Amino acid sequence: MSDLVSAVHTALSGVIDPEIRRPITDLGMVESVSVDDDGRAAVTVLLTIAGCPLSNTIESDVTAAVTGVEGISAVDVTLGTMNDEQRAELKKQLRGGHEDREIPFSRPDSLTQVILVASGKGGVGKSSVTVNLAMALAARGKSVGILDADIYGHSIPQMLGLMDAMPTSVDGMIMPVPTMGLRVISIGMLKQSRDQVIAWRGPILDRALQQFLADVYWGDLDFLVVDLPPGTGDVALSLGQKVPNAEVLVVTTPQQASAEVAERAGTMASMLEQKVIGVVENMAYLDVVCPHCGQSHRVDVFGTGGGAEVAGTLSTRLGYEVPLLAEIPMDPKLAAGGDLGVPLVATDPERPAAAAVMALAERLASRKRNLAGFKMGLTPVG
User: Fold this and answer.
1) 3 state SS of 329
2) In what order do the strands lie in the sheet with 324-328?
3) What are phi and psi of 17, to 5 degrees?
4) Quick one: which of 265, 264, 226 has its CA closest to 245?
């Protein structure tokens, strides 16, 4: 049977991973191959992550390749998942055996405050908060970068009018795109066309984040504001490992349903030993001028209390105070600014929504950093 096993391995070398575009045998994805006396082949293939969206394609390609081997009567394919060591080895292989460049923000002596803007679900205005907060910090004289880590749903280029911007590469180092006092990088700037779909799995996704953090020349930043994808997936996990001293800002809306899932985003940060610095309630209310009395009245379009509930729950759950830092009112111009590529904070900072973001930036820029739990890179000696 050894000849058949060898033939099966040869056939599998022709199966190409649909995303990484390299043979699965080269990627260490083939864990075992056996052939019994009846010619029935048993092949175990390791996926990079559990629940891989392309698992059916891989299974089908493996089955077809092995079935074509002369002497094989049947094929039994088992799909497993790589462990941490195997994934680490794969990532090293994808880097060509070279070690990663150092991430400056992970150094214990880094003075950059990394703020991860998170939400439990989409549609709460997380990206809008990200760009307006970054603009507000820059307006206070801070050096600010924006990292669009929402790889699948990147919207930062649109919100900053950078749809046609292309980063410059200098000797292997990527220059972030400068705009309105900000330094910005997004996968949306690196696609061949705007309609190109990004459908990456674990190792490639992790590698992209590594490049954005280590291969981009950010320079000396006071703040790096990171737009996370909604939920608690691979990106949050990767950034928790790569930038352990990052802090999390949770964005929610007044609805009960939004509040409950936002709490999960905050809890995820705690699991990664990151501090949740506060909660922002977006679309908190609508100011309406009454046609009868001429006075402005607050209308709670989406209910009330979601932000306060998230802040209270996380304070209890995490064991330290998680304040409600801002309540940003609804404003059609806030959304319009994102569509036009010029944030509201830059065009009309006096409007209530912009003023709320400016106040948020003031609180973040003026606070004293608490070093409790901060990873200093020091080893006690006795």
Assistant:
1) coil
2) 177-179, 182-186, 144-148, 223-227, 113-118, 247-252, 275-282, 324-328
3) -60, 125
4) 226
Cβ proximity of 221 and 91 under 8 Å: no
CA distance 174 to 158: 20
Q: What is the pTM of this model?
A: 0.69
pLDDT, tens digit, 9 for 90 and up, residues 61-109: 999 999 999 999 999 999 998 888 887 787 677 655 555 577 889 888 8
Question: Which residue is associated with the tokens 């949050």?
Answer: 236
Task: Name the least confident of 166-180, 205-219, 230-244.
Answer: 166-180
Q: What is the pLDDT of residue 244?
A: 87
26-65 confidence digits (pLDDT tens): 988 999 999 998 899 999 999 877 777 678 889 999 999 9
How much of the chain exceeds pLDDT 90, in percent?
Answer: 41
Identity of the amino acid at 148: D
Helices (H) and strands (E) in the chain, counts: 12, 15
Residue-range domains of the chain with CATH: 2-94 (3.30.300.130), 104-366 (3.40.50.300)
User: Helices in the chain by DSSP H: which ranges?
Assistant: 2-12, 55-67, 84-94, 126-139, 156-159, 202-210, 234-242, 256-271, 306-318, 332-340, 344-347, 352-366
Q: Which residue has the tokens 């990484």?
A: 20
Phi, psi of 111 (to 5 degrees): -100, 0
Sheet holding 30-35, edge to edge: 30-35, 40-47, 74-81
Dihedral of CA atoms 127, 128, 133, 136 in degrees, nearest 10, equals 140
Q: Could you give the CA distance from residue 307 to residue 343 in angstroms, rounded to a whole number? A: 23
Find how far residue 125's CA is from the centre of its chain: 15
Contact 119, 126 (CB under 8 A): yes
Compute the distance between CA of residue 379 and CA of residue 377 in angstroms, rounded to an integer: 7
**Tokens standing for residue 177:** 């795109």
Amino acid at residue number 344: L
Determine the straight-line distance between the first and last CA of the chain, rounded to whole angstroms.
60
Helix (H, G, I), strand (E, B) or coil at 282: strand
Short-list 212, 140, 144, 227, CA closest to 178: 144
Is residue 172 within 8 A of residue 210, CB to CB? The reply is no
Which of 117, 120, 118 shows the shortest CA–CA distance to 255? Answer: 120
Distance CA 41, CA 66 (A): 8
